[in-house]
Design brief:
three-stranded antiparallel β-sheet; about 25% strand; 7 helices; globular; phosphoprotein
């Protein structure tokens, strides 16, 4: 309050459970963003978590969250293992199930932001885990209003977001540089049009001429990365090219 000059507090605290937000008095469509950091994997009913978050988000709002995901559906031996549960591995969701749950509830397809492989360095735990792999990944889930069919668009970022004037790293697939024309798919266009980012972009359908601006360059469309394991492996390949004296900083999270 003192640093930013608020006369009254602009923060309130509610004690409760992420899958039972209604019990804390949080109303429908009352928030623009919900943030979670490695919490959902500790909740048995993950669908209920997403349903509650969807309920409290405004249209155009998003769930921005990091969590642990598994490369396959976990067997009971892993799900009931006390140490693996405590290390946030036993409750990990099979990564493909996230998209199924999200779209069932009404979110857009998950937007992958970043991912890092998790290495387990413990012989006993490695035996229990077997062929299963784990990754720590950050996703964005947007709640959009029901509108007509979306269409591919060309967009230009105007650099209006404080701290991101030169470029906006939106997710693992799209980085928008100020003044540059970027072709985006239907869902990305719908998100930019109907979220808090709308004021920061000039958005036009493909084929409609955009005004020329400094530094503009049309980009070709590309395959969208949705697999966090693929992204993490690509990231590791990039990091492996680091000079030997800084290679230690490229290691992923290690549980022992």
């Amino acid at each position: 309050m003192e640093k930013y000059g608020f006369q009254t507090p602009n923060v309130t605290f509610h004690r409760g459970y992420i899958e039972k937000l209604e019990e804390t008095g949080i109303k429908n469509e009352s928030y623009d963003i919900v943030i979670s950091n490695c919490v959902i994997n500790l909740v048995p009913d993950k669908q209920q978590v997403l349903q509650e978050v969807h309920r409290v988000l405004k249209h155009g709002g998003e769930l921005y969250f990091s969590d642990v995901y598994a490369s396959l559906e976990l067997p009971e031996e892993i799900r009931t293992h006390r140490v693996l549960w405590g290390e946030c591995l036993g409750g990990a969701l099979y990564w493909k199930d996230l998209a199924i749950l999200a779209q069932k509830i009404g979110f857009c397809h998950p937007r992958l932001v970043s991912a890092n492989l998790i290495t387990v360095q413990n012989e006993e735990l490695e035996r229990v885990i077997g062929d299963c792999r784990f990754v720590s990944a950050t996703f964005r889930l947007f709640k959009l209003p029901k509108t007509g069919p979306a269409e591919r668009c060309q967009v230009i970022y105007n650099g209006g977001i404080t701290g991101h004037e030169k470029e906006l790293i939106f997710d693992a697939n799209f980085t928008f540089k100020e003044g540059e024309i970027v072709e985006v798919d239907e869902e990305t266009a719908a998100i930019l049009k109907n979220s808090r980012f709308a004021q920061d972009f000039l958005i036009r359908p493909i084929g409609e001429k955009l005004s020329t601006c400094r530094g503009c360059s049309a980009l070709e469309s590309k395959d969208i990365i949705t697999d966090p394991f693929k992204l993490a492996e690509e990231s590791d390949c990039t990091k492996s090219r680091c000079p030997p004296d800084v290679a230690g900083s490229c290691c992923g999270t290690i549980y022992s």
